[in-house]
Structure formats: C-alpha cells, structure tokens
Amino acid sequence: xxxxxxxxxxxxxxxxxxxxxxxxxxxxxxxxxxxxxxxxxxxxxxxxxxxxxxxxxxxxxxxxxxxxxxxxxxxxxxxxxxxxxxxxxxxxxxxxxxxxxxxxxxxxxxxxxxx
Length: 115
Description:
Elements: E1 5-7, E2 10-12, E3 18-23, E4 33-39, E5 46-52, E6 58-59, E7 67-72, E8 77-82, E9 91-98, E10 103-105, E11 109-113
Parallel strand pairs: 2-11
Antiparallel strand pairs: 1-3, 3-8, 4-5, 4-9, 5-6, 7-8, 9-10, 9-11
C-alpha cells in the first residue's frame, strides 16, 4: 500500500509561518499533479494549492500571496510554505498525488492558528 508521509504541521500564532512537507515513495513516478488540500472542522475538504505537470501552480483565492507550493522531483516530495497564517487557515492538511492510474492521499497533518 502506497503511503504519503506528511510533516510540518503544528500550532502557530496568527501571522506566523509553517512549512508542510509530503514525501512520496520512489515507486511513484510520472505524477500528473501534486497538491495540498485542507479540511476545517465542520467543512468540506478544499483545494489549497496544486502543481500540475507543465503548468503553473494554482492556489485557492484565500491563500494567494501567502502560500507557496513547490515540488522537489529529485526527492519525490512536495512542500507548502505558509506565511502570514490566519485563524481561518486552521484545519487538517492533506497531501495528494495523482497519476494516470492512481490517486493517493496522505494521512493528514493538523495546522492550528491561534493566539
């Protein structure tokens, strides 16, 4: 069973920063897309940021200018740098890797923005 390993979540004050990382096993390659989603309490899971092969990163309007997604193809990983965090950014963040024949999710990492 393929497992995506996420790290970097935690508790941070408003205005602070966090960097999330997601490592995919070497057995996964030829990604079509790698992205981050989040789910706040009582809400549906939503797209935060995504990198599609051959295209520019796309971001949710609520995080544009504050979050940056990046891929490290050599290490099969994707990162999410989150700056100027707000309480409404609180939620469980999930990594997603999608290919022609697969769609894998991480177990989620909690991000809490609170003073």
